[in-house]
Amino acid sequence: MKEKDIRLCMELCERLRMEMERTSEIPVQCLSGKIRTALLEVREFQRQELDEIRKRIM
Question: How many domains does the chain have?
Fold first, then answer.
């Protein structure tokens, strides 16, 4: 990977990490139904994206 690509990946990782922190502030127990399911799916998607980016960097 080029240095520019690595830098962009690292910036994306940081943005995803910040977004994960924001969504983690929402207690899933307080939600119900489709909203709860959607939030859990978003969190899982964020984790997968972050893992994929980290794999590409290394």
Answer: 1
Q: Helix or strand or coil: residue 49?
A: helix
3-state secondary structure of 54: helix
Burial of 12 (0-12, 13-18, 19+ CB in 10 A): middle
Q: Is 28 exposed, middle or buried (0-12, 13-18, 19+ CB in 10 A)?
A: middle
For the whole model, what pTM was predicted? Answer: 0.60
Ranges assigned E (strand) in the chain: none
Range of the domain at 22: 3-57
Is the pLDDT at 38 greater than 80? The verdict is: yes
Which pair of tokens denotes residue 34? 């489709």
Distance from C-alpha of 17 to C-alpha of 43, rounded to nearest angstrom: 11
